[in-house]
Design brief:
Length: about 375
């Protein structure tokens, strides 16, 4: 432990001047590293760290990298931050560390490369895809996705084929969602078939992947996934929204009714939040307005105010053809307006009142 003396601050001032004027010597760097690798007061550690982060030198990066081998966790963390800050001067050091025999050092190197937030670091991160340690492979897959680097799509899929492990598959799907297009889906059946995509680790990632990259036939996956609607309602809703947006115009009646069935199951689930139920009603209106109209009275009587607001918004923006089928609910809309007007302080009541007034206005203007 270094003594907490005024002389230490004076020496740090001198070292900083030496660094600014490019007149620093090895002893200056060693002094800074000793502070970082000790139980010195935080103010000293922060000052030493700040000074070292000003040096753009591969040689200094090698010395800072020695902190990653320290038994002091804080020293390792500080060393990681400095190496990320002085990138690209730390490139050579990190290239060596990412291939170090120690799996923990390799993981540190991957983390630091990601911390640089530099697209040039992805090439080195990709070396982690061949790492013998599973956790390091998972980290590499995740970080490549964060950089939206599509160059390594095939490599990630190869890794998924090679390592059939749920957490890896989940992470890979999360990355592919960001960097893959529809063409990569044709390469996935060989991966999907031997694994259970409906496990809790994989299913949410797979649903998000489907939302971003779906083919018309991928609706088949939802048949079983909907059984877990109480847990993964958000992912299922996002998939249905994405799928409907893409394919609604080309779906036949039976296909639309199948989607309506899934929508209703989510709508009737007690675990689906009200705000998401609003989305589901609007989705139903977009997908099959006739179905919504046939159930409009029941929906307007629903206890969930978000469902009622969604139906009212549907009426409020409907065209003449649809409004002709909605005239019978005008008395119910008037009741909603009367009840809501008694207390407009809450958000839900105010939203209900506004939506009902808009629906009434649209109905009356059509006659």
């Amino acid at each position: 432990m270094l003594p907490y003396e005024e002389g230490t601050f004076q020496k740090l001032d001198k070292i900083e001047k030496n660094i600014i004027t490019q007149n620093y010597v090895d002893d200056d760097i060693d002094f800074l590293l000793n502070i970082l690798n000790s139980d010195s007061p935080r103010v000293l550690i922060e000052r030493a760290s700040l000074i070292l982060s000003k040096i753009q030198s591969p040689d200094i990066a090698d010395k800072v990298a020695t902190l990653l081998f320290s038994e002091n966790a804080h020293a390792r963390n500080v060393g990681s931050v400095i190496l990320a800050q002085i990138w690209p001067a730390s490139r050579e050091a990190l290239e060596k560390l990412v291939e170090h025999p120690n799996k923990h050092i390799r993981k540190h190197a991957l983390d630091i490369l990601n911390m640089t937030q530099s697209p040039d670091a992805v090439e080195i991160i990709a070396k982690g895809l061949d790492d013998p340690e599973l956790n390091n492979v998972i980290a590499a897959v995740e970080y490549i996705g964060e950089y939206y680097e599509s160059k390594y799509v095939d490599k990630i899929i190869d890794v998924m084929n090679r390592i059939n492990e749920p957490m890896l598959i989940s992470t890979a799907l999360e990355s592919l969602e960001k960097i893959c297009d529809e063409t990569c889906f044709t390469k996935l059946p060989s991966i999907i078939s031997p694994i259970d995509i409906y496990t809790p680790i994989i299913l949410p990632s797979f649903l998000r992947f489907l939302s971003a990259i779906s083919r018309k036939e991928d609706i088949e996956f939802i048949e079983k996934a909907i059984e877990q609607k109480d847990i993964y309602y958000k992912e299922l809703i996002d998939f249905l929204k994405s799928y409907t947006s893409k394919y609604a115009a080309s779906l036949d009646k039976p296909e639309k009714l199948k989607l309506i069935k899934y929508t209703c199951e989510l709508l009737n689930s007690e675990q689906t939040p009200s705000v998401n139920k609003y989305e589901l009603v609007r989705l139903m209106a977009h997908l099959e307005p006739d179905y919504l109209i046939s159930n409009i009275s029941e929906l307007l009587d629903n206890k969930d105010k978000y469902i009622v607001v969604a139906v009212l918004d549907f009426i409020g923006s409907a065209n003449s053809d649809i409004l002709k089928s909605c005239g019978h609910v005008k008395p119910r809309i008037l009741e909603i307006i009367q009840d809501a007007s008694k207390n407009l302080e809450g958000f839900e009541q105010a939203a209900l009142y506004v939506a009902a007034m808009r629906a009434l206005h649209n109905l009356e203007s059509d006659y």
